[in-house]
Amino acid sequence: MKLTKPIQNIRDSYKEVMIKKDHCSCRIPQADKVEEIIELTREIIFPGYFSDSHISEVPCLAHTKRVVRKLHKLLKTQIQYSLLYLADREKSKELKKKSCTLCVDFINKIPEIRKMAYYDAIAHFNGDPAAFNLDQVVISYPGLYAITVYRIAHCLDKIGVQVIPRMMSEYAHRVTGIDINPRAEIGECFFIDHGTGVVIGETAVIGNNVKIYQGVTLGAMSLRKGQQLKGTKRHPTIEDDVTIYANASILGGDTIIGANSVIGSNVFITKSVPKNMVVTTKEPELVLRENKKNGTI
Questions:
Q1: What number is the average pLDDT over the span 277-295?
Q2: What are the φ and ψ backbone dihedral angles of 118, each rounded to 5 degrees?
Q3: Alpha carbon 213 to chain centroid distance?
């Protein structure tokens, strides 16, 4: 058989290069189920937008029960996988009970997530003159999608669920090109316009009514020390009512952008900016000359 030798080579490579799990050999959370959890939670957050059937802004009790119970079943199982994966030894009964508790804790916090998601949606609508209506924002804006997934993942992280929040943020990153670490702290009415290439690091703190554009990085100064930096404030703080335009890079845990400031495109900031500032780079000189030769330079 033509595949006999390749299969044996693959088997041999498992012994030569062992990519070992850091923890036990039990099942780990499943990416497709985590994605389904995101979509079920979004259906609860924005009722009437992501359901197969026509429902109003206040769905009937039967519909809410159906979606919440489905979410509970899926999330409880994935949290249990996460707990078992990190436990290093079998504690099935104890961890099954804990996974149910964490799952219910999360579901209890959905009204709070809904409130934040609503403020984010309003911020997107009010901030973008191209928006036709709020419905368009909810169903099609990548910035709102990424922020909503962040709100879900951040809540799970806060109540003590591990692994799953980062899986959620990386899924949103793949879908939208927006990378928001679930441990970042982000206030109300957050607006990401266009969004592609936005990076918000783990220890970034963002206040209320902040608007950022595509390509913005809220990053660390240097990661040469790697794991030694774990637990330290490495990413900047953005105070209330700040606007950051495209491709700006703001780096460092001690860097604070003061409230009501505007950060222009393509700037590189590693030091704090006071309140009420406009920060820009000098406009480069444009050189114009007549095109005399077939459009070539």
A1: 84
A2: -65, -45
A3: 15
